[in-house]
Amino acid sequence: MKNLSPLVLVFFLIACGGQNEQSSEAENPEKITQEAQVVEEKPAVCIWDKVSVRDTPAATGKWRTSISIGETLTYLGEDAIDSLDKNRKYSKVKLADGTEGWSASDFIIVDGRVAVFLNEKDIYKRPDLLTKSDKKFSQMDIVAIKSEQDDWVEITGKRSEGKWIESGWVKKGDLSTETIDVAVAKFASEAMAKEDVSEQIDGLNELLNNSDFAGSSFIPVVRGTVEELIGPAEIVVEEIVESDSLSENQ
Predict the structure, then answer these.
(1) pLDDT of residue 37 exceeding 90
(2) Among residues 59, 51, 101, which one has the least CA distance to residue 78?
(3) Average of per-residue pLDDT across 178-200
(4) How far is CA 119 from CA 21, 70, 138, 174, 183, in A?
């Protein structure tokens, strides 16, 4: 190579360095993709019970754990489609204990806040009194709050009288966002879903005897339900005793 002037030599070295950098990037395309991708984490809430968390975004993915209805989690900003399962959409999530995995997006409400109905509430199609529907959310129904507008709240979740997830608007009030109320509502509903009355009573009494749930707004409701369930049984027993006494006297 002929002798180059200092200025030409500087330009030559800069050009060579640029070529080496481009060559390095071409050999590592994955690195470029990762650096360009910006993942935005957001709070989320689950509105269905026992939702699976899997290692991969597919129904065939290895099961890791399940999420409870009303459980809060973190959406990790990634979605994927399972083309082998009717193009079902999955979202990558992180649970409170740090567990990460993929769950069906239908049940994950991003930017939602968990809430539970303290009393029965009419559902409106839009935030307007003229759009009242014939549907209601019942006491202890667990939902996610998606947005608020004036004195209205947009919610989504499954009604106790419904079969699938529904969305709509309700007037503010009669909604609790306290975790303790959500928990008691879930376990009370599970207890009342049992077919045997004695099992229902046992499940509700377990709630009443658990000090962790003592401060819930639903404890008086649970206690009243137990009294209603026990009352008829006591009346039946008394009638049988009286009947036996009459038979003995005769």
Answers:
(1) no
(2) 101
(3) 97
(4) 65, 17, 6, 6, 16
Q: Token pair of 44, please?
A: 């989320």
Q: Is a pLDDT exceeding 80 seen at residue 137?
A: yes
Tokens of 32: 């470029």
β-bridge pairing 72-82 and 51-54: unpaired
Among candidate residues 173, 174, 175, 183, the one with its CA nearest the CA of residue 215: 183
Is 130 in contact with 114 (CB distance < 8 Å)? Answer: no
**Measured between alpha carbons, how far is 133 from 202 in angstroms, rounded to an integer?**
37
Q: In this predicted structure, what is the pLDDT of residue 39? A: 72
Q: Are strands 100-104 and 88-94 parallel, antiparallel or unpaired?
A: antiparallel
Checking DSSP bridges between strand 152-158 and strand 165-171, what pairing results, if any?
Answer: antiparallel
**pLDDT at residue 57 greater than cutoff 60:** yes
**Tens digit of each residue's pLDDT (9 = 90 or more) over 76-114:** 999 999 999 999 999 999 999 999 999 999 999 999 999
Rounded Cα gap, residues 63 and 75, in angstroms: 18
| Tally of CB atoms within 10 A around 216 | 23
Residue 19: CB atoms within 10 Å = 10
Please tell me the predicted confidence (pLDDT) of residue 28.
Answer: 46
CA torsion angle 114 119 120 123 (round to 10): -40
